[in-house]
Amino acid sequence: MAQLSEEDPVSQITQTVVQNLEDQHDWTSVETHHGAGQRPLIKGLPPRRLYIHPDDQIAALEHEHSTGVLLHQEPEFEWVLAVHPAEKWTLSRIASVFDSVEHAGERAKRIVLGTVHNDSTVVYYLLHEGLVKPRQN
Amino acid sequence: MTTVTARPPRPLPRISKIAGRYLVFDHEDASVLRREANTNGSLVGTLPQQPTQNMFLGLPIELRPEEAEALVHKNLARVVDDVAAHQAALLRSPESRTAYIQSLRRDKAAAHRVLAERAAQKAAVAAGKAGGRKKSKPKAEPAAASNAPLAPSDGDDTMFASAPPAVSSASSPRVADSPMDNFGVTLTSSRDLIPPDVDREFEVSDTPQGPLARYLQDGGYHTTPGLRFGSEYSVYPGDPLRFHAHFMANQYDWDEEIPILDIIEGGRLATAVKKAFVIAGSDPSKGEAPENVTAYSIEWAGM
Amino acid sequence: MAETSTPKPAMASANNNPARERRPHEIYVQPAPIKTFPLPSFYPSNPLSFIQLAYAWIGQILSPPAAEPSIIHQGTWSVATTSVHIKDAQSMRALWEQGFYGKGNLSRSEPNWLKREEVRRGLQEGHVSEIHTVERREERIRAKWERARLEQENIRQTREREARQAEKRRAAGDADTPLKAHILAEPLAPVGPAEILALPNSAASLPGNLVNGFVKDGSSHGESSDDYSKTNGILDSSLETSDDTSSTEGPISTPVIPGLDRLKRRKSVRFSPTVASTTFDHADPPSPGHSTNPKQNESLSLVPQAGAGVLINKEHLQLMPEEALWLNFALGVLVVLDGSGTPLSTRALLNLFRQHSVFPPLTGPDDPAPLPDDDFLLHYVVYHHFRSLGWVPRAGIKFGVDWLLYNRGPVFDHAEFGLLVIPSYSDPWWQSSGKRKPQKTWQWFHSILRVLSHVMKSMVLVYVDVPPPHKFEQALESGLADALKLYKVREIMVKRWSSNRNR
C-alpha cells in the first residue's frame, strides 16, 4: 500500500478532470496551470461556446435580425477548477482562485467547477464572479 | 383620491420592533418601502374576524432583522421599539390619550361619510337606471356627489390621511354624532398616538446586520424568504409581482466552510428552476458591507 | 455505396447480430453475479412434483454444480479516482448485467462506449442512448436559439405596436375623458378607502380599457399565448427577460417550432426497453457520458473505415468503493488488485476505502485512524443493507443524495427513492464523548427535497446507529460481518405536505 500516497491527491483529481474534458467533452489545447501555493487550474478550449450571457444573446439575436450574421458563436478558452465532492471550500479560497486567474492573464469572469465523483461522474458547474443573471434556457 | 402628489414629504418609514420581530403596520410606509427601497417584506397579518386565515394575508408586513438593518443603514427607514414608545406615549399625559381617542372618532366619522356617499351614489345610479333613458343625468349626479362633500372637509377626508396628530384638529363638530358609535374602525397603525419626539427616543440601533441583505438592498434587488428553493433569499431583479426570481442566495462568513456538495446541490436546483445559485459573504479585510461583499453565481455548465 | 458507410436496413442486420435481439429481461435475468440452484417446490396435492423434486435433488447430488461463485472478476484499485476499475470486457458486461454494478467511465451508466463508437463509425447499427442524447441535445440547442429569437421578435413587435398606440393616444389625447387621462398619468396603487371603492368591480364596468392604470391590450398579461410558457407551475422566462416590456404581453401567437414541445419540462419518466440511462429533463445537470460536439460526430462518421479495425475500448467499468467491498466481501465475486498487481484482502480494502473517504485522504502515517462513523462505513452499511434486501442502490450525486434506490435496476425502472445517510449517535458512549450530529440547515434539506420532487422521487432519511469505537474495533477483530452487525439502519420517508394541495 506504500505506493498509494506518492502523488498529491489534488493533482490526481485535476488529471482526472483533464482526461474527462478531452475524452468525453472533446476539449482541445487542455493544459494545467500551477500557481505558486495555489490550486492548479485547467485551461482549455471547448468544442462549442460554453456560455453566452443572456444580454449578449439578446444582442446577438438583434444583430442576427438586422444583419443576418450570427455573433458569439466561436468557443472561448475556459478555466476549470477540479474539486472533490468531499472537499469544503470557503469564499476566501474561491476569491483567491479568481485572483490567481487574473495573474495568469486577464481577469476571468467565471471559472468552471469540475467535481469528480468516484462513480466516474464529473459534474461541471459555472462559477461566475458577481451576481450574474441566469441563462433562461 | 387625487391628492397623492400634493402630500407633504413623509417621515421615514417606521419599522416597529415588537418581540424581536420587525413589522411595518402603516400601509403607506409599506408601499414606500416597496416602491422606493425595493423591500417588500412578507405580509403576516390576518383579519381579526378570521384568525385561522393562512393565505392572502394582510398588513403588517414583517421584515427580517437584516433587511431592517439594511434599510436603516441606508437611512431609508427607522426601527422603533414599539412597546416602549407606546407605553411612554400613554403614560406621558392624559390629554394625549383623549386627543388620540378623538382622532379615532374623527376617523370613524370620515369612513362613515365615505360609505354614506357611496351608498347615495349607488342609489342615484340605480334610480337613474330605473327612472329614465336619459344618459346625461345619472352620469353627472354621481360625479357631483363624490366631489362636493369631499371638497370642504379638507384634511380629514380619508381615514388614513397623514394629517398631523389629533391635537390640532380636535374640534371636529361631527365627533359627537350618535350613529357613529356602532360603526367600528380597525386601524392598521397607531401612528397618531405617538408624537414624533417620543418616537425618536425609542429608536433601535442594535439590529443584527447581514452583509448580503445590505448588498442586495443596495443593488436594487427585491428579496423574499427563499426556503421554498432551499436558500436564505430568493432574489428578484424588481418587484416580485412583476418578475421571477433570478437568484437563490445564501450568505456565508468569509472563512466559513462550504461543502462542495452543497454548492452542486444548490446549482442543480437553481438551474432546474431557471435561476442561479448565489453564495456571498463580506471580506472583513476590505471595509464595510455592502462594499466588501463578494458574490458568486453558480449555474450548470451544460456539459 | 450502401454497404460502406450508410446504415443498412434493420432487416439485414437482424440475423448477424442476435445479441441485440435479446429482451431486457433475458439479458438481465440474473439479479446477482452468482448462480443459485433451487430445488423445485413439492406440492402434496400433486404427486408428480415429488418426482421432479427427487430428480433435481439426485441430479445435484450426482453431478453437483460448480461451486459458486464460479467466476471471480478482477478489478484494480485506482487511487486517482478512488475507485476500482474493471477492464476485462466480459467482467464489465457481467457485473453490469448481473445486478447493475458500476458505471462505464465514458458512458452515462451502462458501459457502451465501444458500441457507441462502432455505431458512429457505421460498423454496427442500432441505437445507443448516448448518441440519442447527443442528437436530442443538438436539436434542443437549435430549438432554444430559435425560441430565444422568437421571443425577441415578440418583444420587438410588442414594442412597435405600443409605440404606434402611444402615437395614436397622443394624437387623440384631448378627446380622452379627463379621468382616463388622469389615471394614465399617475399609475399609482389605489390605497385609501375612497380610491379602493372607486375601482371598477369588473373589467366590464371599466370606462375604457384600463385596469389599475395599466394599459390592457386585448389579452391580459397573465395569459400569454406561448404554449411553452407554463411548465410545472413555473412561469417561463418571457416575463423575466423582458424587463421593460413585461407589463404587456401581446396577443401574437407563437409559431410552432418543431422540437419545441420537447423543451417542456418533463415530469414523467420515460421508459425504454433498451435504453439504460435515466433521462429526466433538460435541466438535468450531471449527465456525463456524451459529447455535444457535432463536428466530432461528423468527422468521426466521415472517416472512412481506416481506424475501424483497431478500435480499442477506452472504457472501463468503474466500481465505487462500496460496490467493490460488497462484491468482494458479501458476494466474494471480486478480487481487487493494488497498483502492483497484488490482491488486496478484505481488511486491506476496508482500510483503504475508509482512508480515502475524505479529501485529502488520510493515508499518512500520523493521520488519525478513522472512527466507526467515517463516511465510507456509513455509506457501506446502507449499501449493504439495501443490497441484501434486493434493492439496487446506485450513486446519487446527480440529485445531491447519497444513494438512489432502484427496484430492479436502471434498465427497468427509474429510481423511486433518494437516500440521505445520517449518522445517529444513540449509544451513550457518543453522548459522553460530546459527539454531535452533523448540523445541516433547513435550506439544505429543502433544496434536496425540492430536487427530488422535481424528478418524482421520494426522500428517505436513513439513520445509521453508529457503535462506539471500542466495541467496533473489538468486533472487527473477529471479522467485518461481526462489526457490521453493530450498525442499525432506520428509514424515514419524508414528503412535503402542503395544506392547500393535500386536502
UniProtKB/TrEMBL annotation, chain A:
It comes from the Eukaryota. Residues 17-137 form the tRNA-splicing endonuclease subunit Sen15 domain. One of its GO terms (cellular component) is tRNA-intron endonuclease complex. InterPro entries: Sen15_fungi, tRNA-endonuc_su_Sen15, tRNA_endonuc-like_dom_sf, tRNA_intron_Endo_cat-like_sf. GO terms for molecular function: nucleic acid binding; tRNA-intron lyase activity. Keywords: tRNA processing. SUPFAM superfamilies: tRNA-intron endonuclease catalytic domain-like. One of its GO terms (biological process) is tRNA-type intron splice site recognition and cleavage. Transmembrane segments: none annotated. Belongs to the SEN15 family. This is tRNA-splicing endonuclease subunit Sen15 domain-containing protein. It comes from Clonostachys chloroleuca.
UniProtKB/TrEMBL annotation, chain B:
The keyword Lyase applies. Residues 141-153, 161-179 have a biased composition (Low complexity). It comes from the Eukaryota. SUPFAM superfamilies: tRNA-intron endonuclease catalytic domain-like. Pfam families: tRNA_int_endo, TSEN34_N. InterPro entries: tRNA_endonuc-like_dom_sf (IPR011856), tRNA_intron_Endo_cat-like_sf (IPR036167), tRNA_intron_Endonuc_cat-like (IPR006677), TSEN34 (IPR016690), TSEN34_N (IPR059049). Residues 214-283 form the tRNA intron endonuclease catalytic domain. GO terms for biological process: tRNA-type intron splice site recognition and cleavage. It is an enzyme of class 4 (lyase). One of its GO terms (cellular component) is tRNA-intron endonuclease complex. Keywords: Lyase, tRNA processing. GO terms for molecular function: nucleic acid binding; tRNA-intron lyase activity. Residues 14-82 form the TSEN34 N-terminal domain. The active site is at Y236, H244, K275. Its EC number is 4.6.1.16. CDD domains: tRNA-intron_lyase_C. Residues 125-182 are annotated as: Disordered. Belongs to the tRNA-intron endonuclease family. PANTHER family: TRNA-SPLICING ENDONUCLEASE SUBUNIT SEN34, TRNA-SPLICING ENDONUCLEASE SUBUNIT SEN34-RELATED. Constitutes one of the two catalytic subunit of the tRNA-splicing endonuclease complex, a complex responsible for identification and cleavage of the splice sites in pre-tRNA. It cleaves pre-tRNA at the 5'- and 3'-splice sites to release the intron. The products are an intron and two tRNA half-molecules bearing 2',3'-cyclic phosphate and 5'-OH termini. There are no conserved sequences at the splice sites, but the intron is invariably located at the same site in the gene, placing the splice sites an invariant distance from the constant structural features of the tRNA body. This is tRNA-splicing endonuclease subunit Sen34. It comes from Clonostachys chloroleuca. The lineage of its organism: Eukaryota, Fungi, Dikarya, Ascomycota, Pezizomycotina.
Automatic annotation (TrEMBL), chain C:
GO terms for cellular component: cytoplasm; tRNA-intron endonuclease complex. Residues 1-23, 156-178, 217-259, 274-299 are annotated as: Disordered. This is tRNA-intron lyase. Its EC number is 4.6.1.16. Residues 1-18, 289-299 have a biased composition (Polar residues). Keywords: Lyase, tRNA processing. Residues 218-229 have a biased composition (Basic and acidic residues). InterPro entries: tRNA_endonuc-like_dom_sf, tRNA_intron_Endo_cat-like_sf, tRNA_intron_Endonuc_cat-like, tRNA_splic, tRNA_splic_SEN2. The active site is at Y406, H414, K457.
